[in-house]
Structure formats: C-alpha cells, structure tokens
Amino acid sequence: MLAIGVCGSPRAGGNTDALLEAVMDRLREEGVRVEVIALRNLRFSPCSGCRSCIKRGSCVIADDFTRLVIPALLSADIVVVASPVYFNNVSALTKAFIDRTWCLRGKLRYRVGGAVVVGRGYGAESAITAIHAFMLKHGMILAHRGVHGEGFEAREVLRDERALRDAESLAKTLVTVAEATASLRKG
C-alpha cells in the first residue's frame, strides 16, 4: 500500500510539515509505504483552463507537476493533503495543486483521502472543506473528518495533543478504509 502526502506549505520545517509528518510516521508504523511531496520544492504552473486535457487525456503543461505529482497520485492508495490556513482557506500552493488535478477527472476514484490543516483557529473548517471538496470531486473516499492543529511558531503544533491524537486516528482510519476498499481501486 502506498500513501502520498502532499504538503501545501511554503515554509519548510513548519507546523504543516510537522503535523503531516506525524500522520505519515503513523502510516509507516502501520506498514504503509509513504512519500511526501512538498509543493514548495516544485516548479509548476497553475492550471490555464485550456481544457486540452479533455481531448488529450492528460495535462499539456510540461512541468514538475506533470512529471512528478500526477504519477505519484495515480499510484497511490491513500492521499493526504496538508495545508496551512491562509486567509480562512487553503494556501495558494494547495489551491494550485487542487486546480492542476482537473486533468485527472475519473482517475483518482476510490483512493482514500484525508485532510490536515494548521492555523490559529479561524478558517480551519473552510480549509478542510476545500480539501474534502477536491477529494469528493475526484470520487475519492473520505476516511476522517480532518485534522486541525493549532500553531504559529515553528513546530508549535507538536504541543497540540488533540491534533496529535487526531493525526493518529486519521492514519489508522486511512489504513482500515484503504484495506477494505482495495478491490475497488484494482477493478
């Protein structure tokens, strides 16, 4: 089983990285292979809305997203999307990621998904809703209500006991649901 973690934080080593890593570490403990994609390290353009992918069957933009992210998503059983909460929603990097997956319509069906967000209180529900809406649009299976951690200073989220418990619960639930639905992804 393979889990892909997508981190939409522009800050390396911050709270979003830390909480996503807590989920991915727990998935490793469950025997799942994991890969984390930090969007900040990639060179990719936003979706241009050209709709060429409809005829071609794939995105026409040749960049890191097409070369690295799309193949990873297509090979995943589990997808965890993590974002800081910026202005009551996901970060711009996370939104660009979501938009670029439009070319994958129908190809992510039955992957099991989870959302992780970190902020200071306001906007967490909106950010989780945006991630869940992306997943539902692709026919993915939501395995959890989403994990919300609070933090501002670097790695402060690791003192948020509720968020860490929720991260563990998310990981366990992702594995349980992915195991139960494996035949759907193969068929």
Explain what this protein looks like in three dimensions.
- With 187 residues, this protein is α/β, with parallel strands linked by helices.
- The chain has a single domain (2-46, 71-180), classed as 3-Layer(aba) Sandwich (Rossmann fold), CATH 3.40.50.360.
- 43% of the residues lie in helices and 18% in strands.
- The protein has helices at 15-29, 52-56, 64-75, 92-100, 124-137, 161-180, 182-186, and strands at residues 2-7, 33-38, 78-84, 112-119, 141-142, 147-150.
- Strands 1, 2, 3, 4, 5 and 6 form a six-stranded parallel beta sheet that branches.
- β4, α5 (124-137) and β5 form a beta-alpha-beta unit.
- α1 crosses α6.
- It is globular.
- It starts with a strand and ends with a helix.
Throw out a few tags for this protein:
Rossmann fold; alpha/beta; 43% helix; 187 residues; 7 helices; globular; 6-stranded parallel beta sheet
CATH top-level class: Alpha Beta
The global form is: globular
| Beta-strand share of residues | 15-25%
Number of domains: 1
Task: Count the beta strands.
Answer: 6
Helix content: 40-55%
CATH architecture level-2 label:
3-Layer(aba) Sandwich
Q: Biggest β-sheet, characterized? A: 6 strands, parallel
Oligomer: single chain
**For the record, what is the CATH homologous superfamily label?**
Flavodoxin domain
